[in-house]
Description:
The complex is a heterodimer of chains A (about 230) and B (about 575).
Chain A: E1 11-19, E2 22-30, H1 37-50, H2 55-74, E3 85-94, E4 97-106, H3 114-125, H4 132-164, H5 168-175, H6 183-186, E5 206-209, H7 212-226
Antiparallel strand pairs in A: 1-2, 3-4, 4-5
Helix pairs in contact in A: 1-2, 3-4, 4-5
Chain B: H1 33-38, H2 52-68, H3 76-80, H4 87-99, H5 186-192, E1 208-212, E2 218-220, H6 221-226, E3 238-242, H7 256-269, H8 273-279, H9 285-294, H10 298-309, H11 316-340, H12 343-363, H13 370-378, H14 382-397, H15 399-413, H16 415-432, H17 434-450, H18 458-473, H19 475-481, H20 490-576
Antiparallel strand pairs in B: 1-2, 1-3
Amino acid sequence: KFRMPTADNLVPIRLDIETEGQRYKDAFTWNPSDPDSEVVVFAKRTVRDLKLPPQFITQIAQSIQTQLTEFRSYEGQDMYTAEKIVPIKLDLRVNHTLIKDHFLWDLNNYESDPEEFARTFCNDMGIEDPEVGPAVAFAIREQLYEIAIQSVASAREIKISKKGRRGAEHAISSKGGGNALDLMKLFRYNSSVVRKRKEWYVYEPIVDILSNEEVDALEAREDRNTR
Amino acid sequence: MEMPQYDPNTKPEFELYTIPSHSSWFRWDDIHETERTALKEFFDGSSISRTPKIYKEYRDFMINKYREEPSRRLTFTQVRKSLVGDVSLLHKVFRFLDEWGLINFGAVSRGDDSDNRDSSLGDTELKNQVKIEEGAPNGVRVVALPNSLKPISVPNSGADGSGNGKVAVAGETGVKLPPLASYSDVFGDLVKLKGFKCGSCGEQCNSGCYEYSKGSFVICEKCFKNGNYGEDKSKDDFRFSDLGGNSLTHGATWTEAETLLLLESVMRHGDNWELVAQNVPTKSKLDCISKLIELPFGEFMMGSAHEMNSCPTGSLNSLKEGQSASSENQNDVKMEDQVHDQMNESKQNGDAATEEPPAKRKRIAPLSDGGSTLIKQVGGLDSVLDNLEHYQTFLLMDCSDASFEVAHISTMVGPHVTAAAAEAAVAALCNESSCPREIFDGDEDYLANGLSSPTMVSDPERALQVDASKMEENQSETQDASSEKNDVPLNLRIRTATATALGAAAANAKLLADQEDREIEHLVAIIIETQMKKLHSKINYFDDLELIMEKEYNEMMQLKECLVEERIDVLERALKTGVSKWRS
């Protein structure tokens, strides 16, 4: 059944609202089992805390609601639950910290915890900015969410195709998203799970602390890209 | 052939890596039950990406990676880039190894680990390894997980290497439990410290001293810094030993008022250290306890506090008497100690003794001078003076109380002891000068009537002999005053004399008994330790023996095979050449 493949079933919500020359960008996780009335309360509180003009309230609430509904539309549908190890890429900037990372995640592990991963990550890399952790966790969740949606779609396809064809396994591995790694190849008996040294840099996290000018430059570039 | 216990990564000489003793099940070649249960995912065949082989690769890689640099703390992020697999699963393996001390055991612990770590492994370095040597002890500060069997113990600091010390406990063998609230190293005082005097400048080394490793020379910190090492000694020869670390002087200086407060609150509250510590505002609970033990009869007081409170008369008077009794005991102990030459204790005792008298002195302001002359006769010491002054006051107030006091002392110490002491004291006093004899002749009857039949107790006797000798030194003084004593009523003299005797006896007996007890405990502890060591070495010996036997056995088997082959060979040849009849 469809759900976020993590220990906590939280939906990643992204907001990007612009009204009257003010732009509000945010990203956080929401618990879909909270009552919908909470959405409006949250919107009001956010506007008050950040001192935004009141038009934002309705817009924020709407945006959240839409995303929630979308999430709920997937609920109840079947998800393809065979094992899938997908690569997750991180490429984000939080205030002054730039993070690039690449690692593998098991979609079938319903006990996985992006927040714990983010915590370990920040501790190990010695990141002091407290906003980085949640941002990392959010990025992971977002990607997992997308993949979960894809798996729903692929599950649907498989159901259709299963009626006709045999050898559904191969279909799965090709249809389950180009992301999924070929487990057979990776975890074969002869091969080692220890990567070759020359490949280590691919999967190594890179954390850069930017100076103010660089931050400004990057922000300007991001704005240009999104418009 | 390879011995499974040894680290296959060894270079010509073995490198020892430290792991805690509760992880001694670990083997490179094998996967243990502990691992199987903790990391089920690898062993239930649920996926092709999780097999025992893969688990072993993860595990070996992580441990080897850590051992490349044992002093630095291996982080998960460093290993995950090199391993293929789900990061959550890798993290689980990593955490498992971390908690069992198979990695990061000797590493510096991280500061902000409260959130995501269940345990933080301490910084020990014991040269001990998978090759389980003598019960590796030390501490790993662990919060016990539900299915783990780890002991909870106190972290120790490493003697060398990166360990940044937490609590510096002299790392001995055996798992140590966290110290009790009243833990104090009593034996350290008795055994080690004989009051270090600096060899070069002659001062007392209080906080730390440098010991000359090739001899028994000791210099204080100042001298060491200044370079006064003494002749023929160089800087490197000196080893620093910190006396202030575990010693009893936590709160350092105890003023008279504080000690008085402490004693009073102990009298009132007995064993309730919280209240005692509250009443003595500047000293912590631990300080109070240690100070009380230091004081002679500190423990005696703790016991007597209970007695006092349950005393039938239960009047304030009795409390005062008790206090004065113990104070006089302390004072007498001061006497005794100087005789027995226990330097450190005596200083502290001396402090205690001098603290008490001033406090008590205030109470005896209204004193007639007549009594003082008698006192001079009996002993020339200030302490005795005070004792008797106390009794003077009580006697003046209420004669019956004094006898009660005497009776009370006898209940505390035992009537036999007091009687013996009284007799001995009387005898001693008689030896001094002939005059008192007249007086005390009458006294003896009193004693015989008042107390039970005397039995000689050697200790008090001995002490009192010493007492007597001291008194004899002051004999010249007493002779002068002998004439004056006639002024004082007989009753007073009797009572004061007996009081002194009883006090002296009680003091010494208790002191010696306590000493004995402590020594016994200490020795028993040493014995037990040695026995343990013996057993351990025996076990090791037997293990070695087993190995040797195994090897021999294998060799024998091989030899046997060889022989069998040869024999077959011979037979074949024999048959080939057509020897028809086999002659053995």
